[in-house]
């Protein structure tokens, strides 16, 4: 009796959960499906989920119309470059805050986070003018610099929460064992914190990949990553649903897969250690 | 070699003085235990000796060399931490090898030393495992192994057994004592457990509120505690303290009687009380006796003691076993152990 | 809890991060402050003369500012409300024993990884389009007039899109928080005779407060500067009905090339963000530390 009841409630909850999550996922699923339709099927008044002539012509056309591969490479270089550069700057800072705590550590963290709250529009014009004067507009290096800086507070904070979970005693043991600061960080801290560092890197790649404000404003043709590439479909090409879908899938899928891989680690890091 | 001398050493965090000016001489080869309640400064002092904390003032000498400002690595000391602090990403072998690699010892010699240490600590079969795959006791031994291979001039232990369960703790206690006998190296051992202190130490330093109350052999501390704090801290169950009215010419403010020094008598003794909770341990029995005007006294009796809850019993103690404390809680030697020390004190 | 040596080292290691962030904050901010008191338009090269607080006066008395200010509040508040309520519901649902929980998790999380430009375009064209959108097809199917979302309900439409993007984030963080709840607490409540509702109200919700704080903080940081979603859907219209402050300043400075006016707006945005930040930091200081 009791077993039957639990099975019944499990079934109900399962149905409910799959329905809700199906609805949330539907726009993505629909985009993927539409990308394989012909344009006339895509806008059909009685749309079909699977029963249509599958075609790859949209992908072919998107690829031929714009240099997708260049945009893709821009996205990879910018998001990976900014994340690696960010790690390089953030790791020492996080080490300091996690293992040499002072009364000011908390305030410093709060201050760093508050720079993240500085609205980008507040500094938009000077950055634009500075970039223009230094010839950084529409360059990869320019975007790498901006992405590094806007995500630095989040990186420091994420690394800090991961480092905090490593007992100070392990680093002290290394110090007693004769390790200098270089050995302490490279041979002890970094290997232990590797999962946290990896997820920090991943999350920042994702954030930088999806960042739209600065990429739309600071790039034109040369350094435009996928966010800008896809924005060019806003209108009137947006009315060609199948092609829009194909382009969207190509822009989103790489990062979607990366995100699914790291989902568990991500939650912890993103909540600033508030949940474990 | 491994003598450590502390001269007028202090430590303060901001306005808080964690260690008040303190002198201590630790002799080469001795096993000294720092014991005291939590927050008494014993761990801080150990970390200052290790070089993990700055010394606010005073000097620390290791083998007659001023080491006050030396970084930890140069002091030639090894430390075993409460959490063991093993490197989780390295095998047992690499954990033990780590200090040797830092010192750029030749690989062949490293291998030799690891084998030797592993044999000594029964770790040979586990050398290729990660710390996560070991039991608490094994981890503890790895931590000790990592300390041994460096051949330090002194070992520092920071509450190393507090994460182990009771039976394992007794075993490790013996192993560490054994190790001390065979290595004959200075060991400084911090604990809050007075049983560990009593069983392992050559000498004990009792800490309280940033000062050392008394330094001495376990028996000295048990028999001749200098004040009420030491008397109460050393010995289990705790010593009973009984306040008395001050009489003219007698500075005694309170008396101290250890539970094991009470005798239950037929005739009226010094105290009479009603028996409360009785704890049978088999080999002995602890009685909690309520005495009017005094409070509850803990009494150690024989294992087959026939007293029952609610009985009225008479208690007495030999005069030379009763400690006398003055109004500041300081032991009055001439009354407590009958030696005429008053001449030397004056 | 360290030596002077390691403290010195710590300062050195903090230096790059702190100085870079300081520069990133101070230099452009000072420039913005300077531009904001100039008559500076990129289309009219001139003396860029000093005009005092005129730019601020124009910006603050512009009806568009008031409208976009409230739009910003509505946008942030609306999305926070939807994502937190929906997130708690989803988290409780996903915490139950269900078949295929991993697949459900993956599906729920997916929208978070979709870049804002893509999700805005997909929603705008394929769902909310009044002629060919899926919603329009559905409305016709059940016999009602399709809604022209971006003409009739522009701000709400954007709130829906942004909520869809952030719901997964809230749900996943709250789910993780629920899963960290000590099961013994719930069992104790069972023994004390608590029903499912009182268990939720008295045990689960209080346990979630830290996670909710974190969600509010992080979402607000990102929501205050929503931009791409507006740019590719409504371009702020019709009129200013879906313009937030970020977008307003963007149009002023980069579309009308009015650097002075845009800068004044930027400073206003910074001030608003600071007020919000102070509130948030108080909240976190209390809730995230413990």
From TrEMBL, chain A:
What is the membrane topology listed in the Swiss-Prot or TrEMBL record? Multi-pass membrane protein
The listed locations are: Cell membrane
Limits of the ABC transmembrane type-1 domain: 72-262
List all membrane-crossing ranges.
12-33, 72-96, 108-129, 141-163, 184-207, 213-233, 240-261
Q: One short Pfam family name for this protein?
A: BPD_transp_1
Q: Does the keyword Cell membrane apply?
A: yes
**Homology family:** Belongs to the binding-protein-dependent transport system permease family. MalFG subfamily.
Where along the sequence do coiled-coil regions lie? none
Give me the Gene Ontology terms describing cellular component.
plasma membrane
Keyword set, alphabetical order: Cell membrane, Membrane, Transmembrane, Transmembrane helix, Transport
Swiss-Prot/TrEMBL GO biological process terms: transmembrane transport
What InterPro entries does UniProt report for this protein, alphabetically? BP-dep_ABC_trans_perm, MetI-like, MetI-like_sf
Q: What is the name of the protein in this document?
A: Carbohydrate ABC transporter permease
What superkingdom heads the lineage?
Answer: Bacteria
Q: What is its main location?
A: membrane
Automatic annotation (TrEMBL), chain B:
Which GO MF term does the entry hold, naming one? ATP binding
User: By what name is this protein known?
Assistant: ATP-binding cassette domain-containing protein
The record's InterPro entries line, in alphabetical order, gives:
AAA+_ATPase (IPR003593), ABC_transporter-like_ATP-bd (IPR003439), ABC_transporter-like_CS (IPR017871), ABC_transpr_MalK-like (IPR015855), ABC_transpr_MalK/UgpC-like (IPR047641), Mo/tungstate-bd_C_term_dom (IPR008995), NA-bd_OB-fold (IPR012340), P-loop_NTPase (IPR027417)
Domain of life from the UniProt record? Bacteria
PROSITE patterns documented for this protein: ABC_TRANSPORTER_1, ABC_TRANSPORTER_2
Gene Ontology cellular component terms for the protein in this record: ATP-binding cassette (ABC) transporter complex, substrate-binding subunit-containing; maltose transport complex
Keyword terms of this UniProt record? ATP-binding, Nucleotide-binding, Sugar transport, Transport
Q: Where is the ABC transporter domain?
A: 4-234
UniProtKB/TrEMBL annotation, chain C:
Domain ABC transmembrane type-1, first and last residues per copy = 69-280
InterPro entries, alphabetically? MetI-like, MetI-like_sf
Q: Does the keyword Ion transport apply?
A: no
What Pfam families does the record tag this protein with?
Answer: BPD_transp_1
UniProt xrefs under SUPFAM superfamilies: MetI-like
Record keywords: Cell membrane, Membrane, Transmembrane, Transmembrane helix, Transport
One GO cellular component this record assigns the protein to is: plasma membrane
The protein's location, in the record's own words, is: Cell membrane
Q: Where in this chain does the entry annotate a coiled-coil region?
A: none
GO biological process terms, semicolon-separated: transmembrane transport
Question: CDD domains attached here?
Answer: TM_PBP2
Please tell me where this protein is predominantly located: membrane
TM helices/strands, residue ranges: 12-35, 69-94, 106-123, 155-178, 211-232, 264-284
Tell me what topology the record assigns in the membrane: Multi-pass membrane protein
List, alphabetically, the PANTHER family matched. Answer: BLR7065 PROTEIN (PTHR43005), INTEGRAL MEMBRANE SUGAR TRANSPORT PROTEIN (PTHR43005:SF2)
Provide the family line: Belongs to the binding-protein-dependent transport system permease family.
Name of the molecule in the record: Sugar ABC transporter permease
Which organism is this protein's natural source? Alteromonas portus
């Amino acid at each position: 009796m009791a077993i039957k009841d639990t099975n019944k409630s499990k079934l109900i909850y399962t149905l409910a959960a799959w329905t809700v999550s199906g609805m949330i996922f539907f726009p993505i699923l629909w985009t993927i499906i539409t990308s394989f339709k012909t344009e006339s099927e895509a806008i059909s008044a009685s749309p079909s989920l699977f029963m249509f002539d599958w075609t790859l012509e949209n992908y072919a056309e998107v690829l031929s119309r714009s240099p997708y591969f260049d945009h893709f490479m821009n996205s990879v270089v910018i998001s990976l470059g900014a994340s690696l550069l960010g790690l390089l700057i953030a790791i020492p800072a996080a080490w300091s805050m996690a293992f040499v705590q002072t009364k000011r550590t908390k305030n410093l963290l709060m201050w760093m986070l508050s720079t993240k709250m500085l609205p980008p529009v507040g500094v938009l014009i000077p950055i634009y003018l500075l970039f223009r004067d230094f010839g950084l507009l529409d360059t990869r290096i320019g975007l790498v610099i901006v992405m590094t800086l806007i995500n630095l507070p989040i990186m420091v904070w994420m690394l800090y929460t991961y480092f905090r979970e490593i007992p100070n005693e392990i680093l002290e043991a290394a110090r007693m064992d004769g390790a200098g600061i270089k050995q302490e960080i490279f041979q002890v801290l970094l290997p232990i914190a590797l999962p946290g560092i990896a997820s920090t890197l991943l999350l920042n790649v994702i954030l930088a990949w999806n960042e739209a404000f600065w990429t739309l404003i600071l790039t034109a043709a040369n350094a435009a990553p996928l966010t800008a590439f896809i924005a060019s479909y806003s209108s009137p090409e947006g009315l060609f649903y199948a092609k829009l879908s194909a382009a969207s899938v190509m822009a989103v899928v790489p990062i979607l897969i990366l995100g699914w891989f790291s989902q568990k680690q991500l939650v912890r890091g993103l909540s600033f250690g508030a949940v474990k | 070699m491994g003598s450590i001398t502390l001269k007028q050493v202090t430590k303060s965090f901001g306005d808080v003085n964690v260690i008040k000016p303190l002198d201590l001489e630790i002799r080469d080869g001795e096993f000294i235990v720092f014991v005291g309640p939590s927050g008494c400064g014993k761990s801080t002092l150990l970390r200052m000796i290790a070089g993990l904390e700055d010394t606010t003032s005073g000097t620390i000498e290791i083998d007659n060399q001023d080491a006050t400002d030396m970084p930890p690595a140069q002091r030639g000391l090894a430390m075993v931490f409460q959490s063991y602090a093993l490197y989780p990403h390295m095998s047992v072998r690499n954990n033990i090898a780590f200090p040797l690699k830092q010192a750029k010892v030749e690989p062949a010699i490293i291998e030799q030393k690891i084998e030797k240490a592993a044999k000594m600590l029964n770790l040979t079969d586990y050398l290729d495992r990660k710390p996560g795959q070991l039991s608490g006791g094994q981890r503890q031994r790895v931590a000790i192994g990592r300390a041994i291979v460096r051949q330090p001039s002194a070992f520092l232990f920071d509450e190393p057994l507090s994460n182990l369960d009771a039976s394992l703790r007794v075993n490790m206690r013996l192993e560490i004592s054994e190790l001390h006998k065979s290595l004959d190296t200075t060991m400084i051992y911090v604990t809050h457990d007075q049983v560990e202190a009593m069983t392992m130490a050559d000498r004990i330093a009792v800490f309280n509120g940033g000062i050392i109350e008394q330094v001495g052999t376990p028996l000295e501390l048990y028999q001749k505690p200098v004040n009420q704090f030491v008397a109460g801290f050393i010995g289990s169950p705790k010593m009973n303290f009984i306040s008395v009215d001050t009489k003219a010419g007698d500075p005694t403010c309170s008396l101290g009687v250890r539970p094991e020094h009470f005798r239950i008598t037929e005739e009226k003794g010094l105290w009479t009380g009603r028996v409360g909770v009785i704890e049978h341990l088999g080999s002995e029995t602890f009685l909690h006796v309520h005495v009017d005007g005094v409070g509850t006294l803990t009494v150690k009796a024989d294992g087959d003691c026939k007293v029952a809850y609610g009985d009225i019993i008479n208690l007495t103690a030999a005069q030379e076993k009763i400690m006398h404390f003055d109004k500041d809680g300081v032991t009055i030697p001439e009354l407590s152990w009958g030696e005429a020390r008053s001449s030397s004190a004056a | 809890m360290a030596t002077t040596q390691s403290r010195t080292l710590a300062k050195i290691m903090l230096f790059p991060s702190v100085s870079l962030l300081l520069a990133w904050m101070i230099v452009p901010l000072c420039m913005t402050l300077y531009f904001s008191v100039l008559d500076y338009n990129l289309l009219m090269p001139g003396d860029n003369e000093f005009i005092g607080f005129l730019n601020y006066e124009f910006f603050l008395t512009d009806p568009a500012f008031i409208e976009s200010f409230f739009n910003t509040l509505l946008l942030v508040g609306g999305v926070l409300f939807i994502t937190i309520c929906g997130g708690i519901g989803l988290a409780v649902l996903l915490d139950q024993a269900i078949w295929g929980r991993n697949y459900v998790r993956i599906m729920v999380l997916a929208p978070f990884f979709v870049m804002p430009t893509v999700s805005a375009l997909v929603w705008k064209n394929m769902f909310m389009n009044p002629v060919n959108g899926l919603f329009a097809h559905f409305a016709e199917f059940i016999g009602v007039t399709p809604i022209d979302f971006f003409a009739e309900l522009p701000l709400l439409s954007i709130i829906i899109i942004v909520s869809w993007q952030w719901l997964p984030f809230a749900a996943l963080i709250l789910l993780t928080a629920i899963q960290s709840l000590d099961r013994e607490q719930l069992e104790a409540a069972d023994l004390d005779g608590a029903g499912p509702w009182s268990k939720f109200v008295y045990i689960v919700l209080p346990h979630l407060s830290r996670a909710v704080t974190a969600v509010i903080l992080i979402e607000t940081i990102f929501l205050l500067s929503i931009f791409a979603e507006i740019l590719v859907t409504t371009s702020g219209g019709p009129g200013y009905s879906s313009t937030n402050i970020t977008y307003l300043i963007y149009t002023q400075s980069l579309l009308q090339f009015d650097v002075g006016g845009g800068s004044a707006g930027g400073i206003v945005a910074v001030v608003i963000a600071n007020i919000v930040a102070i509130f948030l930091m108080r909240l976190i200081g209390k809730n995230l530390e413990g």
